[in-house]
């Protein structure tokens, strides 16, 4: 793999920290710099790194930024893997985390073959998964929000006489509940 270059990316919302490891085992691993997290800058980065003529192998940690970067790099003809943070080997006592160190570590581990890639969904699958997760979150938040007024009513001795809460009948009853100030 003499003509291969391994690139570790520490990806954030606004910027990507880049580290480069040449293909030879034990070779130099250096922090290349930081680029804005925008498609045009990523394209320019890949073109600069590919100028040597070798094959580029990118990797980055899965996170909230999604898989757009993966798709862009693969469409450009480069290898790219996405790694779950829980699957990245960590040395004991290695607690200081910086963008620079993380990108260098990813480049080293990728070159050594010690990273396990996760499955990357296509755009449609990712959109459906995001929708399902958003709905689940909304349902969980709604349930918690409903508990607050029910607790308030219970503390003030107002108990709904029906069987099931949050129905039309419950909402009508809720609109009729009256409270009196303790001083009255």
From TrEMBL:
Domain Transposase IS110-like N-terminal: 7-142
GO biological process: DNA transposition
UniProt xrefs under Pfam families: DEDD_Tnp_IS110
Organism superkingdom: Bacteria
GO MF, one annotated term: DNA binding
Matching InterPro entries: Transp_IS110-like_N, Transpos_IS110
Name by which UniProt lists this protein: Transposase IS110-like N-terminal domain-containing protein
Organism of this sequence: Puniceibacterium antarcticum
């Amino acid at each position: 793999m003499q003509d291969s270059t391994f690139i570790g990316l520490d990806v954030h919302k606004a910027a990507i920290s880049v580290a480069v490891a040449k293909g030879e085992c034990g070779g130099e691993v250096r922090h290349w710099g930081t680029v804005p997290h925008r498609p045009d800058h990523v394209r320019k980065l890949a073109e600069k790194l590919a100028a040597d003529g070798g094959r580029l192998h990118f990797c980055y940690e899965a996170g909230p930024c999604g898989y757009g970067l993966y798709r862009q790099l693969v469409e450009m003809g480069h290898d790219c893997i996405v790694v779950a943070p829980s699957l990245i080997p960590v040395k004991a006592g290695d607690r200081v985390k910086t963008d620079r160190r993380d990108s260098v570590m990813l480049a080293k581990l990728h070159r050594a073959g010690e990273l396990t890639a996760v499955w990357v969904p296509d755009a449609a699958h990712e959109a459906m998964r995001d929708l399902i997760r958003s709905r689940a979150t909304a349902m969980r938040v709604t349930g918690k929000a409903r508990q607050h007024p029910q607790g308030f009513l219970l503390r003030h001795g107002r108990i709904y006489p029906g069987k099931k809460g949050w129905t039309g009948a419950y909402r009508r009853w809720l609109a009729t509940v009256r409270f009196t100030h303790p001083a009255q």
